[in-house]
Amino acid sequence: MKGMQKIRRGKSFAGVVLYALKPGTHHKTDPVVIGGNMLGASATELITEFEVSASLRADILKPVWHNSLRLPQWDSLTEEQWATFADDYMTRMGFSDTHLRCYVLHDDEAGQHIHIIASRVDLVGGKLYLGRNENLASTRIIQELELAYDLTRTKGPSPSHVPYPASKRKKLSRNEQQKEKREGQPTPKTFLQNTIDELLTSAINILGFVEALTENGITTIPNISSTGRMNGFSFEYSGIAFKASQLGKSYSWANLQEKLRYAPERDNPLLFALKASAKQSNETREPETQVTLGEAALSSPAALEVEAEAITHSQVHEPGTEAQTLLNITRMPSEQTSGADHFMTCVLKWLLSIPYLAAFTDLLKKAGKTFLHQKSSFSTIHTVLSAEPELSEPLGSSKIVTERTAVPFR
């Protein structure tokens, strides 16, 4: 489904109502009002009602709001389906139930489309519908409704004005081009480029720029130094962050500054606040990442060492703990010992729980030795000497005789 290239606003309801309801040879059937919230159905009745609403705000020069929604040639909806779709569209666009509107169906060879004619003046209190950046909002809403109503997804209209040549926009990668073709809607990069280009067609200040991007679901992150030097923006849309350089030269601060009304004294407080907000948002997401990393680390060797330290502190004063631990490991139920890997993990945990093992390892390293290298040859021990002291003199004598006895080694 496509909307008009540009939503129109006008001074007179008579012209647009008469145009929408005018029969034509290219129509399969005469145009008919299929929905809305108005009492009348004829052109005269509709014009009268619209003019009553406009009279509530005589200061508004253009109270008329007009758009059309067109289906692809091969698609069609019933009148009830069209009315429901249009109601949903207008609600998402920001119109209230007390903004007068009507929907007129045209059915011709090119396919079905409806004209939506609405008053910008609310019947209650005369509140005016402003509709900031409504062309961009309309494109996004149509794409959302295509999904919600299971309609054929079509590409939205291109920006009516492009302030920069295409050469200054970063081209899409091959994968991005294929994704656009497959899904029938712009990628986040293209959406960002189109949105910014549309905003820059008119003079706008920093506050208006940021607010308009926010209305379109885009987060703006200023790159401003602590000294107040502004270096540009990063943008985030659909959970994907883009630096200005990733969008193209057109979006560098040097080029944006030419289009935006920027005054450091006025705008820097806002930019600092936006930067702090973005930083705080990132920090609130970090603990979740750390928890995830912590869970993943439980299966790593480093985690075994940490767990072993806890075991060591709890067992250091319990004699025979090491032997008992190993005994318990070898007696674990079969449902807990899932293979040799699990058993070796348990053995490693037990080894790391030995209090003096780390000190022993350090001594070996200092001596140039390691557990990993097996000694190639060993000396054979034939005998051992007993060095037990024996008293051969009366008590009180300071002379101690030590008798060494050779004991065969078995």
In terms of topology, how is this protein built?
Blueprint (H helix, E strand, L loop, with lengths): L1 E2 L4 E3 L2 H9 L10 E5 L6 H13 L8 E7 L8 H15 L7 E8 L2 E9 L14 H15 L25 H10 L4 H12 L4 E2 H10 L2 E7 L5 E8 L2 E4 H4 L5 H7 E2 L2 H34 L3 H15 L5 H10 L9 H13 L4 H10 L16 E4 L2 E2 L10 E2 L2 E4 L2
Parallel strand pairs: 7-11
Antiparallel strand pairs: 1-4, 2-4, 3-5, 4-6, 5-6, 8-9, 9-10, 12-15, 13-14
**Which range does the strand content fall in?**
15-25%
Sequence of secondary-structure elements: EEHEHEHEEHHHEHEEEHHEHHHHHEEEE
| Termini gap | 95 Å
Overall pLDDT confidence = 76
Number of strands: 15
Radius of gyration (CA) equals 40 Å
Structural class: alpha+beta
Coarse morphology: elongated
Specify the helix fraction band.
40-55%
Q: For the report, how would you describe the main beta sheet?
A: 6 strands, antiparallel
Q: Are there runs of 5+ residues with pLDDT below 50, and where?
A: 158-164, 286-337
Helix segment count? 14
Structural notes for this entry:
It comes from Enterobacter agglomerans. This is Relaxase. This protein is α+β, with helices and mostly antiparallel strands and 410 residues long. The chain has 14 helices and 15 strands. The strands form 5 sheets. Strands 1, 2, 3, 4, 5 and 6 form a 6-stranded antiparallel sheet that branches. Strands 8-9-10 form a 3-stranded antiparallel sheet. The chain has a two-stranded parallel sheet with strand order 7-11. The longest helix has 34 residues, at 264-297.
